[in-house]
Structures are given as C-alpha cells and as structure tokens.
Amino acid sequence: MENKLFIGIDFSKKKFDVSVLENIGQKNFQQKTFENCDEGYKLLLKWLSEQSKFKRFNWVFCGEHTGLYSRGLANFLYKKDLAIWLENPLRIKLCSGIKRAKTDRIDSIEIARYSVRYFDQKVDYKPESKEIEGLRLLSSYRDRLVKAKVAIHNSAKEIRSVISRNACSRFIFESSNADVSHIEKQIEAVEARMLELVMNSALKRNYQLITSIKGIGLITAVEILVCTDNFKTFENARQLACYSGCAPFPNESGTINKGNRILVLCTKYAVSNLANKSLKALLSNCARSAIQHDNFLREYYQRKISEGKLDRVVINNVRSKLIHRIFAVVKSGKPFQQDYVKSV
C-alpha cells in the first residue's frame, strides 16, 4: 500500500481535535484543536500542509459519524475533493480496546489508529441530496413535536385527575389542551411539507411504491427513504431487517461431546439490540396495521398465535415480511398486488 497520512478527528459541537499518524507504531505524533466552523476547516488544511510531507491525495481523514457535528467538515472536504471516512462510533469504540482515560485528544488518536488498521474497509463520505437532508430535518422536527405534545398532554391529564377541584389545575388543563391543539396543527403542517417535498422530487417513485403496501404510511415511508438514502445504502431486505432490528441471529452457549456427536448446550435465535429503534417502532406500528387490513398477514398472524407463538415474535416476522415486500416493489418498479402470482 502506498504511504498514507492518517488523520483522526474527534468532533464536538464547537471544536474538533485532530491527531496525525503515518503508521500504527508511531509514538510521536502531531495533535491540534480547531474550531468547528469554516475558518477552522481552512486552518486545518493549512496546518496539515505545513506539518506533512505527504501530498493531499495521500491524506486519509477519518472521524466518527456524529450527525450535525461532523457534517460541516465532511461537506467542506468533499467540495475540496478530499475524501473523509465517517465511521460508526460504536465500532471504533469496540475496536479500541481497554482505555483508562478518555479525552477528546485521546479519542482522536484512537480514531487515527483505527483508520490505519481498517483502511481496507474505508467508505468515503458522500453528501446527502437536498431532498433527503430536508426529509431528515423535517422528520427530526416532527419527532420533537410529538414528544412535546405527549409530555404536555400527559402532565396536564395527571394534574387534572389528582387535583380536580383546584382552579389552578383547571387553568393548566385548559391551557395545555390549547397547546396540544397548536402542536397538532404544527405536526400536520410538517407532514404536509414532507409530502410536498417527496412528490416534487426523484423520491416520488419509490414513495408511491412503498405506500402501495398495506400498513405503510407517510411517516414510515419517509423514514425508510431517509435511512436507505433512497435505497442506495442497502442492497437487500436482509440488510435493512438487520439495521432495523428485525433479523434474528443465533445465540449459542457451550457444547458437550457425546461420542461422535458434539451437541450445543443452549441454542436460541434473537434479534440484536443494536438497531435503529425509531425505524423498528414505526415498522411495529405498520405490522399492527397490516394484520388488520391485509388478509394474508392477518391469517398468518392468527395461525402462528394459535400454534403458541408469542405475539412479539409473530409481529417481528410480519415486520420482516413488510421489509421484503418493500424491496420487492422497489426492485420491480410495480406497486404491491395482494393476489400477485409469479409468472413461470
């Protein structure tokens, strides 16, 4: 492999720390802190040019994918034709071994070491389209509105039920109801903006295909489009099922040797806790709706329950079936048909 300069970056809201390595065994290395803004990004490139004998095309930037905090520098470097590799923070943590101290500078050198070890798995960052970025922002805003609505409603309801004859509790209850009504109108406006953005962009085709499946509505369809970057980041249904916490994995513990046979003492299958829980919750709601309106899925659910399967297990299976339907309609380009028969 051609010699590279590995640049580990630890992001925070107002600043980012940088460590520079040439190889994994290097003991003396350069470190510096910059402001997380355009001026800081320019100073970073100037500092690297002064410190390094490597040409720019041999620079390997690596940082944790921290959403908004990492996006500024990533977009800046992309415009400068400099690739940056944004990795899952949990993966970097699990590959860093035991650490007794934690600072931003220590984290940046661990990220640089990670980029050296796993350079062959590097994935260059590419900015999201304006439509996907807009949907992501609208979806996050809607989530905050929904949480605020639930918090206000539940708090007011609790006060009203405990202190029913107090004038102040009555005032809080009525005022809270007015706030809830206002938030509901805001949520409707956000959803209308989501739909408008989807229908006036290249996302329209896949959105219409996804929502042709019974049980899947606007919010889930938008979340799937955002998480898959309009089906560019996942190749098949199994990958999305794994990402959303629907795919089961084996969990084995211990073996016993009986003659020519080796028996596993404990084997079970379970979904992983490492998942996009927001998408998983939305798919659960879709599964509940689907078993009410889709004859095939309703019969499947009732049959499995009668066989003694747990409700949560069957619902997870329905979630998986919906994911496979989603990929099937997107791949074929045809809306979902309940009575579809594959031609021979």
What report would you give on this structure?
The chain is an alpha/beta fold and 344 residues long. The chain has three domains: 5-121, Ribonuclease H-like superfamily/Ribonuclease H (Nucleotidyltransferase, domain 5, 2-Layer Sandwich), CATH 3.30.420; 130-201; 221-332, no CATH class. Helix content is 54%, strand content 15%. The chain has twelve helices and seven strands. It has helices at 38-51, 68-79, 89-94, 104-117, 130-162, 167-199, 204-210, 218-227, 237-243, 277-293, 295-306, 311-332; strands at residues 5-11, 15-21, 30-35, 59-64, 84-87, 248-258, 261-271. It has a five-stranded mixed beta sheet. A two-stranded antiparallel sheet has the order 6-7. Helix 5 packs across helix 8 (218-227), helix 10 (277-293) packs across helix 11 (295-306) and helix 11 (295-306) runs antiparallel to helix 12 (311-332). It is globular and about 70 Å long. The chain starts with a strand and ends in a 12-residue tail after the last helix.
| Share of helix, binned | 40-55%
CATH class term of the largest domain:
Alpha Beta
User: If classified by CATH, what would the architecture of the largest domain be?
Assistant: 2-Layer Sandwich
Distance N to C terminus: 50 Å
Calculate the mean pLDDT score and round it: 89
Task: Please tell me what the overall shape is.
Answer: globular
- How many domains? 3
CATH superfamily of the largest domain: Ribonuclease H-like superfamily/Ribonuclease H
Largest sheet, strands/sense/barrel:
5 strands, mixed
Q: Please mark out the parts with pLDDT under 50 across 5 or more consecutive residues, or reply none.
A: none
Q: What name is given to the CATH topology of the largest domain? A: Nucleotidyltransferase, domain 5
How many distinct helices?
12
- Derived structural class: alpha/beta
Secondary-structure element order, as H and E? EEEHEHEHHHHHHHEEHHH
What's the β-strand tally? Answer: 7
- Order of strands across the widest beta sheet? 3-2-1-4-5
Radius of gyration: 25 Å
Strand content: 15-25%
